[in-house]
Write a structure and sequence with these properties.
The protein has 310 residues and is of the alpha/beta class. It contains eleven helices and ten strands. The longest helix has 23 residues, at 283-305.
């Protein structure tokens, strides 16, 4: 296995910017990912947070788990609010000459990113605002009852795409948000997973240094919606990567780099059969998913092997 991400564990801060005592579910991979993101961002951060799991569990009035500047936005406008904050900081800098190095960050779940908030995100990326957008992808609208999103994987059973006699669950393939973000010709795009803390921190720290927009897509394991034991959170994320279901890679100025390249992928069956949301799948459907995973994984590998300008 080739590993390109480098983050020295002993240099990780022991400061926490999302406090304990939040209301996340047992085994929540998303709040783990959020914790790692905040560690890499540091204190000088302003976060625009869309409605969703991380907003709900962190800010029950009159309490808050946030140790950085934070604003709750609607489902659809986290990127638009971040754009306004970033523009306001630029105006203050022009007027006063110096503003502390503050990074603006927008956050949303898969629904707030790939569905409801896609227009605002696309506009912010196209305009070139200096901010980071982080998508915490738990592959459904988990906060409101496990409804399907465009990031729900093919075959998964949700409350609005249930498996049964007339349906096999989600019938469309997962939307490739990393590719969509990269199509805006932004400086930095990356994928990561809640089971790989140092990979997350490495990529967030890298994005923080970028001038211009960055997009980080983090697969965030949700035991509640995925129908798996809360003790299997880390295992599920690693299986997603090791089977090739969710490759970890970066796109810097259009150039792809694989972060974890396995000589031989584990069969997707190892990943699918460990989750209740896929328990209805037939061998033929699992074989179809396996073929799709191989094709998409090889596509990323091919793009990663290309050198810019050749």
């Amino acid at each position: 296995m080739e590993t390109l991400s480098v983050y020295v564990p002993k240099l990780v801060t022991n400061k926490e910017y999302i406090a304990s005592g939040h209301r996340a579910c047992s085994g929540c991979g998303e709040v783990l990912a959020l914790r790692y993101v905040c560690k890499a961002l540091g204190r000088n951060t302003i976060i625009s947070n869309a409605t969703g799991c991380m907003e709900i569990i962190s800010s029950p009035l009159p309490e808050t788990a946030w140790e950085v500047s934070w604003i709750h936005t609607l489902f659809e406008n986290a990127a638009a609010v971040a754009s306004g904050i970033e523009s306001g900081l630029k105006a203050l800098k022009r007027k006063h000459g110096y503003i502390k190095d503050v990074k603006v960050v927008a956050m949303g779940g898969d629904g707030a990113t790939a569905d409801i908030g896609l227009q605002a995100l696309s506009g912010a990326l196209e305009r070139g605002h200096d901010f980071i957008y982080v998508c915490f992808d738990n592959e459904a609208y988990m906060n409101t009852g496990i409804q399907r999103s465009s990031e729900t994987p093919f075959g998964a059973s949700t409350t609005t795409a249930p498996s049964g006699k007339v349906s096999m669950g989600q019938h469309t393939w997962k939307k490739n948000m990393a590719a969509i973000a990269a199509a805006h010709n932004i400086p930095y795009v990356a994928t990561s997973c809640s089971s790989y803390p140092f990979d997350i921190m490495y990529k967030i720290e890298k994005a923080r240094k970028v001038k211009g927009p960055s997009y980080i897509h983090i697969l965030s394991v949700c035991p509640t919606g995925w129908r798996c034991p809360s003790s299997d959170t880390i295992k599920m994320g690693r299986l997603a990567v090791e089977t090739g279901v969710f490759p970890l890679y970066e796109i810097e100025n259009g150039e792809y780099k694989m972060n974890f390249d396995y000589p031989k992928l584990r069969p997707v069956e190892d990943y699918l059969t460990a989750q209740g949301r896929f328990r209805h799948l037939t061998k033929e459907q699992i074989a179809e998913i396996q073929q799709k995973v191989i094709v998409e994984y090889e596509k990323i590998k091919m793009l990663s092997s290309r050198k810019k300008g050749k």
